[in-house]
Amino acid sequence: MNRKIRMGMVGGGIGAFIGEVHRIASRIDGQIELVCGAFSSSAEKSKRSGEELYLPSNRIYANFEEMILKEKELPEGERMDFVSIVTPNHVHYAPAKMALENGFHVVCDKPLAYSLEEAKDLERLVKETGLIFALTHNYTGYPMVKQAREMVKSGAFGKIRKVVAEYPQGWLSTFLESTHQKQAAWRTDPKRSGASGCFGDIGSHAENLAEYITGLQITELCADLSILVEGRLLDDDGSVLVRFDNGAKGIIYASQISAGEENELKIRVYGEKGGLEWLQSEPNTLTVKWLDAPKQIYKTGNGYVFSQAAAHARIPAGHPEGYLEAFANIYRNVAKCIQARLKGETPDAIYQDFPTVQDGVRGMLFIEKVVESSNSEQKWVKM
Amino acid sequence: MNRKIRMGMVGGGIGAFIGEVHRIASRIDGQIELVCGAFSSSAEKSKRSGEELYLPSNRIYANFEEMILKEKELPEGERMDFVSIVTPNHVHYAPAKMALENGFHVVCDKPLAYSLEEAKDLERLVKETGLIFALTHNYTGYPMVKQAREMVKSGAFGKIRKVVAEYPQGWLSTFLESTHQKQAAWRTDPKRSGASGCFGDIGSHAENLAEYITGLQITELCADLSILVEGRLLDDDGSVLVRFDNGAKGIIYASQISAGEENELKIRVYGEKGGLEWLQSEPNTLTVKWLDAPKQIYKTGNGYVFSQAAAHARIPAGHPEGYLEAFANIYRNVAKCIQARLKGETPDAIYQDFPTVQDGVRGMLFIEKVVESSNSEQKWVKM
Amino acid sequence: MNRKIRMGMVGGGIGAFIGEVHRIASRIDGQIELVCGAFSSSAEKSKRSGEELYLPSNRIYANFEEMILKEKELPEGERMDFVSIVTPNHVHYAPAKMALENGFHVVCDKPLAYSLEEAKDLERLVKETGLIFALTHNYTGYPMVKQAREMVKSGAFGKIRKVVAEYPQGWLSTFLESTHQKQAAWRTDPKRSGASGCFGDIGSHAENLAEYITGLQITELCADLSILVEGRLLDDDGSVLVRFDNGAKGIIYASQISAGEENELKIRVYGEKGGLEWLQSEPNTLTVKWLDAPKQIYKTGNGYVFSQAAAHARIPAGHPEGYLEAFANIYRNVAKCIQARLKGETPDAIYQDFPTVQDGVRGMLFIEKVVESSNSEQKWVKM
Amino acid sequence: MNRKIRMGMVGGGIGAFIGEVHRIASRIDGQIELVCGAFSSSAEKSKRSGEELYLPSNRIYANFEEMILKEKELPEGERMDFVSIVTPNHVHYAPAKMALENGFHVVCDKPLAYSLEEAKDLERLVKETGLIFALTHNYTGYPMVKQAREMVKSGAFGKIRKVVAEYPQGWLSTFLESTHQKQAAWRTDPKRSGASGCFGDIGSHAENLAEYITGLQITELCADLSILVEGRLLDDDGSVLVRFDNGAKGIIYASQISAGEENELKIRVYGEKGGLEWLQSEPNTLTVKWLDAPKQIYKTGNGYVFSQAAAHARIPAGHPEGYLEAFANIYRNVAKCIQARLKGETPDAIYQDFPTVQDGVRGMLFIEKVVESSNSEQKWVKM
Predict the structure, then answer these.
(1) Residue B204: CB partners within 8 Å, gap ≥ 6?
(2) Is any Cβ of chain A less than 8 angstroms from the Cβ of D239?
(3) Domain CATH code at residue C211
(4) What is the predicted pLDDT for the residue at A69?
């Protein structure tokens, strides 16, 4: 029997940025309903948040431990199916671990954990439990990113030679954490964010996007991380030379002090016969370049895109979809995979396309190696 | 007491384009739940559609008459609060009228009706019943359209002198209706679409956008409608010279045979001191122009936008929102206004910003006058 | 024997805009040398201008009559070959007529003359004398405009259905002529500019571009000219509905009060199978659109362009050429045609591609009909 | 007494790319005349080239030695004033040295020489002779590059923190040199090009642009050069992490195998309060970014630009100037400086703005250090 998939949320109380993004993303396709939550480390704030979300009071919990234990006791037709974890990095591991150990699937915000060690432990647990674990590297959810991946995979560009992935932002150009701005405070705090600030937050998105689209893996890197705002405790800018497993070269750079930039995640990939360019701020466009022919402007929703791209757009060409829809693609796919399990079926290949715990481990490895390289006098660090 | 607002839907069965858009739009902000529907003129198709939407079978109706009558008998805590009408133009009037007569608020797709006469009757009914009636001229839901309107209203550009609104599409470049493609079939059929094809479908969007942003009204027009694809029964292209009530001049044009265009709704407004430009396919950007200073690129979600624009975006700058979010702004606002009524409160001014039955009457008047002008040898037709 | 072609100039004294443009254009390809001039109606200013241009004093004339008569007496190896006329509109006819009557080829700025009557007389004279007469509708000199024309001619887009040509500027948004700004003063003066201000100056460029690219002719039009700045004597804005000889429809609009616009001449052409778009402010790009395939971005200087486009670019792809080079293409072609005559040869077809006196007559006809239509209550005026 | 400045050219025979660019650049402003040349290492080809340029046969020389010696014997009113050197890199040093030693000013194509040693010798000679020496790092000739430099200098952006300069091309994506294509052949040949291919040709442009705009100097770098096309003898791609003397960080990258790119030289500079972006393929636009205000689009030719930018544009806003005009700015400035010398005056500061032999030495140092770093296991190389 078909039914909506039930979500419990950890974090994302009133005023949260990413928590509300996850909730919207979970609603868009009508496959998921929010049934419970532990929205804050403050029980009172959790309660108020749950009420604003129209949850019944008995499904609003004081903390994630209570939520997982109480929900586990509810009957199958009622209890949550999966946990969505939208807390700062240092509070990913504990709820994810407990959810898995108690039989709940997990959707977790990125980066996967506070440390590589935690990440690897989660990978082990997912393997042992066989549960579904999705990481919201949401940028890979865009239809034109799927199109880019399929075009590379098709061999249209020949062997890939060069990859440039960049993610400049400007919002930390001032010493914003000194004003107790919530988003800035935890992201620049080594105790909550992890070993890296800028690369933990957004550099790992660039890395994930590059490997997702090209199907290549970084094997060596040379990094220069910087703290460019005085008083800051973690890197707010960094540039990394990378080498890929097929011999391709590349650059990955991320910045939070590129004043005036919003969220300009961009990737350029060049092969022997052509290349492509995609920019997150105009996400429905994929520019395709050729050696001896005019550039082409691929747009979401057209008949000429690969089926995997088409399956991740909802509306016809010319009706721009955005960040929330890309994010929703992860939730939709997870919901469809859980539905398939409930019915004992194998999910359609379309729906199996979302970032996993392995991507998360790879991201944590990248972050750790970038930090190691940046502190080293040696040119290349193996990854 | 706070609760989600309950929606019943007329039309929008499996495979529909705009019905699914309305549903997604109603979900995004978590303020509305779909509780019932009459999704098709075929009872069997309505049933299948409702099941796919996880509705209980007793809330899936064979037709809108049954839905309205049966829902009316349900207790307040259970029955639908409003009806969403997403059928072709010739089936707007009857369900809207019946819903209003039975005390239900209405959200209706545009254009308001099949004829100006029907439109005026609905206007009368809304006035008599005092119910909420929203028309989904969704493009006015974009944050940067709100910003544009507020900038004009602020006097930043001085008196407005020139307005160019255009809506080129290319999807009807071939005789698509001969293939029984569903969207093309009814839109090119005078019996279902009304007096105009292209201007009924998209020309009226351009007109609505122009009047919404400038706060001006068209007083005279001179139109040239064309059928450029052989065999077609309604206009597929048209250009209109317009004059506004403050003396400004303008052009409104729409086309369905502009091969290679997707949905390039664009507006340019020029005043004495500056002007603006907005393009639907890059909706988070508003280009602002000045006489003696560099152009400025306003982007959604920044601190510098007017509060009315800010209130219609969900996520920070750099995270593109799209067509569905703009559409959702109408549903969110309607839900908030119904909630206020339930509580006996006056809704916040922010939420009272959605297209109404009056906008719908004006749109129908525009369509009729464009057709009249196009058939006339006289240069100017008063509106 | 090969030699540079010798130019005499009428108008274009110190501080002139278009005179200097013509001079630069004549220099770029090294085929032309300026040998004499009557640069101003003030003999003294003419002298100073000529000296600044390093001309010997005996070749700097007090007025065009003197120049034409004196130059005629010089031996062939020394006297000017052609006259370049860069004066305001009301001083085109007299020097052009006298030059032709005395055996000199002519390059004349646009519009061709002050009135249609004058224009037709020049057309007659060119026919009688067999001399070369080029009109600097310079925008047709851009390589990507040539490419556009060739693509239409090739049938790639099928039958043309729709043409939108626009030329918005903002520089006359204020009552600039009241400050005695030189460019504004004569362009807004009926005695010097002619029957139309905006359409004489730039509307005729849009018309010329539309007919050049499509190879079609306008047969009927319906115009609304406006004076939007109080006190002005000639139109500063206008919109025209047009119909072409193959049944295509279109819009031509021009404006000098579109505050914040520089020189945004733009054309869009749509046929049955695709279309194109070209914008003067990014002149090395031609956007090509298709019904069922991605848009293509053609760029100047690539191997894939038509030979006629290739022959009008000087440097490889990626090195932007601009307004001056497009202008220079007219001068280069005229010089090559004169060289061919000197050698008794037929010039290469490449070089015969420049606007002629016939284009000028057509432009004057367009201007007059636009003014007539704008003053009429009748909808359509035949052209 | 005012007169045109006389140029002799070394290299640039029929079919040359950069030689013709230099000639056009020298013509545009009417300040320079080509009076002689040694256009090829083949005397016969030199002769044909000179004839095509309408030079008298006695001023067409068989080689640069002959040209310099013969011209030196001509009287001042007749002989060339400066030598323009447009040969491949390995033939810069000898003619430049001989020209300087014989009292001629020099304009030389970049990079300055084949090796750093040669470059330093030329620097010494310029110092000793006091002659004018200009290097055609032409991209700094664009008006918007001047504007960028002035804005940084004004302190508008605060302290500069980050610089990203890139120059991707795709024309060497195949093993083009194997086809004996002339441009490819010498640029990929270590004997003619020098220690680096891609960085000698275009990486040094990116470096020059970064230092010119920011006024900063690179102090340390870490490079990874690659040969990505099999069989090639010099680097065709490279990425360099750089550190500037004020603590700013940066990336400089150049590529000739970025398939589908033409000449996408681009620079982004970020300071504490804002930043800027300039792209060579749309050179009349400078995007200016601010922390808390909308981006601004500066355009060439407007009243709001700095005077140094205004002085390097010829025509009003909206008339795009391009590569040739930027190049011409160097020639115009050199001509004006020579004219001032002839008159015993100090040239206007505007005209003293062109790349010099010192910039050339710095460029050669950069190339050598990039090659050294790329071959090193050590992370940072001092510059």
Answers:
(1) B110, B111, B137, B363, B366, B367
(2) yes
(3) 3.30.360.10
(4) 98
State whether B239 and C251 contact (CB < 8 Å).
Answer: yes
Nearest CA in chain D to C282: D282
Q: Provide the shortest C-alpha distance from residue B331 to chain D (in Å).
A: 29
Residue A206 dihedral angles phi and psi, to the nearest 5°: -65, -45
Q: Are residues C200 and C304 in the same domain?
A: yes
Of D17, D317, D320, the CB nearest to C322: D320
CA nearest B169 in A: which residue? A318
Peptide bond into D283 cis (omega under 30): no
- D169 chain-C contacts, CB cut-off 8 A: 318
Looking up tokens 């109404």, which residue turns up? B356
Cα dihedral: C219, C224, C228, C232 (round 10): 60
Q: Is C138 on the interface with D (CB under 8 A)?
A: no
Nearest Cβ partner for A322 among B54, B263, B321 = B321
From residue D65, give the alpha-carbon distance in Å to each of B288, D101, D251. 59, 12, 42
Tokens of B130: 């005092």
User: Chain D: nearest CA to A146, how far in angstroms?
Assistant: 21
pTM of this structure: 0.97
Where is the domain boundary, C131, C153, C183? C131
Boundary (domain end) residue, out of B71, B106, B131: B131
What's the CA gap between D270 and A226, in Å, rounded? 14
The answer, for B182 touching chain A at a CB cutoff of 8 Å, is: no
Residue B115 has pLDDT above 80, yes or no: yes
Location of structure tokens 């703009």: B326
Q: Does D28 touch chain C (CB under 8 A)?
A: yes
Same domain, yes or no: B59 and B122:
yes
Could you say which residues of chain A have pLDDT below 70?
1
pLDDT of D375 reads: 97
Do C127 and C146 belong to one domain? no
Query: Would the CB atoms of C296 and A298 count as touching at under 8 Å?
Result: no
Q: Do C28 and D29 touch (CB under 8 A)?
A: no
pLDDT tens digits along A192-212? 999 999 999 999 999 999 999
Query: Which positions ≥6 away from A192 have C-beta within 8 Å?
Result: A88, A89, A90, A186
- Are C204 and C296 found together in one domain? yes
Q: What range defines the domain where residue A299 resides?
A: 141-316+363-382
pLDDT at D185 over 80: yes
Q: Within this chain, do residues D46 and D180 fall inside the same structural domain, yes or no?
A: no
Best mutation site among A281, A285, A299, A300 for testing chain B: the one with the most B CBs within 10 Å? A281
Are residue B152 and residue B50 in the same domain, yes or no? no
Residues 6+ apart with CB under 8 A from A339: A2, A5, A31, A347
Contact (CB<8Å) C241/B239:
yes
Interface of D with A in 244-263 (CB under 8 A): 249-251, 253, 255, 257-261
Hey, which bits of chain D come out as E strands? 5-10, 32-38, 82-85, 105-108, 133-135, 160-168, 218-226, 237-244, 249-255, 266-271, 274-279, 285-290, 295-299, 381-382
Kindly tell me if the per-residue pLDDT of D1 is higher than 80. Answer: no
Looking at the complex, report in whole angstroms how far the Cα of residue B247 sits from the nearest Cα belonging to chain A: 33
Task: Collect all residues of chain B within an 8 Å Cβ-Cβ radius of residue D298.
Answer: 294
CA C13, distance to chain mean position in Å, is 20
Q: How far is CA B158 from the centre of its chain?
A: 28
> What span, in angstroms and rounded, lies between the C-alpha atoms of D156 and D304?
14
- Whether B224 sits inside 8 A of C271 (CB atoms) is no
Of A260, A261, A378, the CB nearest to D379: A378
Neighbours of D142 (CB within 10 A): 28
Query: How many structural domains does chain D have?
Result: 2
Q: In terms of domains, do B267 and B371 share one?
A: yes
Question: CB–CB of B244/B250 below 8 Å?
Answer: yes
